[in-house]
Write a structure and sequence with these properties.
The chain is an alpha/beta fold. Helix 1 (about 40-55) packs across helix 2 (about 75-85). Strand 2, helix 2 (about 75-85) and strand 3 (about 90-95) form a beta-alpha-beta unit. The protein contains two helices and five strands, in the order E-H-E-H-E-E-E.
């Protein structure tokens, strides 16, 4: 069977100058006892960490999807993201399906990021109490939970 070709061969993704949309995962916990707005602080910290670690800005973000568990019902992480420079980025908030509930008040995110980084170079951000969810993705030298 002949291969279908749509033009010249493409350089491998992750090659210098070639951009791809990558999924970047993140999670953090929302501390209800914080003096300032705990949701705003947690969302800002998580998104800033993802952008910093992946050498990106909000202009590089195609979309952001937040998941909210039952114990954070009623919060709006999209509004917090807009307050942190994501006003032009498509944002979606969905309710968790009740899966992994090891971490209370855990807000999760999937950032769709346009980047020249290869999939293995992408850095995910698991912060605060959510670090226990993916200790394998913590930066080298980070204290393991």
């Amino acid at each position: 069977m002949d291969e279908i070709s749509s033009g010249p061969p493409r350089p491998p993704t992750g090659a210098v100058g070639i951009s791809a949309c990558r999924g970047v995962r993140g999670a953090t916990t929302v501390d209800g006892a914080a003096a300032d707005d705990p949701l705003d602080r947690a969302v800002g910290e998580m998104l800033e960490q993802i952008l910093h670690d992946n050498h990106a800005s909000s202009a590089d973000v195609a979309a952001v999807i937040f998941t909210v568990p039952d114990d954070l019902q009623g919060v709006n992480p999209a509004a917090a993201a807009r307050a942190h420079g994501f006003e032009s980025v498509p944002l979606l908030v969905v309710r968790e399906d009740g899966g992994d509930q090891r971490v209370a008040r855990c807000l999760r995110v999937l950032v769709l990021l346009n980047t020249t980084l290869g999939q293995r170079e992408v850095r995910h951000a698991y912060l605060r109490g959510a670090r226990v969810l993916r200790p394998d993705l913590l930066p080298a030298g980070a204290d393991k939970p």
